[in-house]
Amino acid sequence: MSERYILSLDEGTTSARAIIWDKSSRLLGIGQFEFPQYYPKAGWVEHNPEEIWDAQKRACKVAMERANIEPKNILAIGITNQRETTIIWDKFTGKPVYNAIVWQCRRTAEIVDWLKKNYEEEIINKTGLIPGSHFSGPKIKWLLDNVSGLKEKVRKGEVLFGTIDTYLIWKLTRGKAHVIDYSNASRTMIFNIHKLEWDRDLLEILDIPEDILPEPRPSSDKNGYGFTDKKSIWSRSTHNW
After folding, report:
1. How would you classify the pairing of strands 197-198 and 159-162?
2. Strand, helix or coil for residue 211
3. Nearest partner of 168 among 12, 25, 62, 64, judged by Cα
4. 165 and 49 in contact (C-beta within 8 Å)?
5. Potential cystine with 29: which of 66, 95, 167, 188 (Cβ 3.0-4.6 Å)?
6. Residue 21 belongs to what H/E stretch?
7. Cα separations in angstroms, 57 against 15, 16, 61, 78, 152
8. pTM of the predicted model, to two decimals?
9. pLDDT by residue (tens digit) across 75-111?
């Protein structure tokens, strides 16, 4: 059997990296590409999810070229990412309905002030978080309240929410896996860390439908999260998560 390797995807705030490791944890190849930052208003920060995806794909290909391996040699893939950044996309076309709202963005400050005034203790008790504008829950509410036609798309079951890990896994599996690991879910401010599930009381407070949310899963699920589709990044073969 040929040597097998691990591919790490490091999707950060300003760039996407891919790193190839062997079984002895030796680094064999790195690819890295930056992507644009958008500042539509003072205090607002956005990314184009399709530019993130393009940068991540290119990083993977460069990393494999530098490691001198082929996709069939990759045993598994892991992701680290920029956590609270929020994307909603069309589940049929894969197109984002709006740019990703980055964790640094302050546009939800008024929503957070309202949450602090009325629900701070409940949020802290359930999520372990002090309400803040960088968490995903208020960003989802902002998108639902401000993107024209989005609530109708939600009603029709046409869209999905995800943090960056969810989005990349969905893209890699070509829509077969809509999942999030517990650690990233815990940074949304709508995840009950005691029950390890979406908190329906907090969803009701923010008027967020549970149907658009990914399935929370253990960070190192022994069964994996899914398989990459050969048409996502690779020209051939499939690979386990």
Report:
1. unpaired
2. helix
3. 12
4. no
5. 66
6. strand 15-21
7. 12, 9, 6, 14, 32
8. 0.92
9. 999 999 999 999 999 999 999 999 999 999 999 999 9
